Amino acid sequence: MRAIITVVGKDKVGIIYQVTKVLAENQVNVLDISQTVMGEDMFTMAMWVDASKSSTDFQELISLLEELGKKIGVSIRLQREEIFDAMHKI
Amino acid sequence: MGLIGMQEIMETVSMVEKQHLDIRTITMGISLRDCHDPNIKVQCQNIYNKIITTAKNLVKVGSDIEKEMGIPIVNKRISVTPIALLADAKTPEDCLEMARALDRAAAATGVNFIGGFSALVHKGYTKGDTALLASLPQALASTSRVCASVNVASTKAGINMDAVAEMGRIMKKAAELTKNQGSIACAKLVVFANVPEDNPFMAGSFHGIGEPECVINVGVSGPGVVKAALENVRGQDFGSVAETIKKTAFKITRMGQMVAQEASSRLGVPFGIVDLSLAPTPVVGDSVAHILEEMGLEKCGAHGTTAALALLNDAVKKGGVMATSYVGGLSGAFIPVSEDAGMISAVQAGALSLEKLEAMTCVCSVGLDMIVVPGDTPAATLSAIIADEAAIGMINNKTTAVRIIPAIGYKVGDMVEFGGLLGHGPVQAVNPFNNHEFVARGGRIPAPINSLRN
User: How far apart are CA B440 and CA B166, in angstroms?
Assistant: First the structure.
């Protein structure tokens, strides 16, 4: 299952490392990453992932990433890709 | 890989996080036409069993989709066959039993409202309609999740003024029975003209007689998203305003369509319609009034408000229609006073009167919605308000409705708290002049002519 991770928050060292660590531990494959720092220090990242080989339940993955976000002080969302496709592709 | 761009992704995320974009409701329509039994106890058991079996996964599936897609689905609800159709050989007491069975079934399935304690009486009453209406005040007062609606007029049948007169009395009785809770029973009762049979929004939702055995209807929302989009075109002409609203409505509705199809496939129930609506909530930043103000009005209710609302309502439909394969329900902008922070503030500022709200209902979906009036408003005045609103619907070939709360013990300027999505409403003044004799005439206002339109 393809999905999209978005991370928004104050920039700091190691955000991508922390996120990809959780993904690696749960056999989620990263397909593409787009990342930028907006303004002074607003970290913004979108990550396209494939969760079809993950043995972890999708809702569990969502919770794991949410918890990580709380721990490192950024907002992390994992959403199925369909929602973005529906809204932006005709 | 055909990937969506970063900008689009962040747009979607911020619509949800900052602008309160949500799916307002997934409503499962369930037919109860196979639940008849001569014995009311058995009939109620049939109703209860059918609902809890058919809707057993509704709340779970709704919550799963909400989590996986990252889109809030605010309400999961159920609508059923108009109960008057199951009441033709029953008494008012039997109808009360059915209302309580619906309430228990709603609680058991975990939905916050169940709609369909309804009757369609635009031309007259059957025995079932009479029994249901007789039980209405008590049914609303003694249940917490049951919503009722009564259709009193249509473009093809005219206005049943006997029913209009009776609805005024019913509202007063229902208000009296729940006077300790701000007369909240009236917040669960809608009086319609030209009622749609597939509306997913409460309190006027029911599962119409042309509907299949079971169906999934979805209501989208997102006034905050439209408001935010309009902030980017300040000072530009109305062509740009309409274009911006259309594009935004398209995106919102595409999301609704996707969620509706996903829910339909996971539940194994056919997809019915998407209701293209802008439904506000009392939360700041989720207001239809603020969209109208964004167009350049100091306060909602100022002269120009009706034109602004007409543009908004039309653009929402134009944008939404291409985004979904089936449109239905109420589709348009809602203007409930107590559920919209901007409307509440406009009333408090003296900018928005009942008369202006009535004018606004000529150009948007639904009608006078969640309006609180003084508790001593006579039943005849409530009926006359219903008659005016029904006339607008009848003449203009559109749905109109009245959900008005005569809050017992409250006077103009007081604030009545309903809680949750129902919000809180300032008590508004009604025209004090007498209409008793008008309402007492009874009979029917004939159906209007549909040519020679002026």
Answer: 10
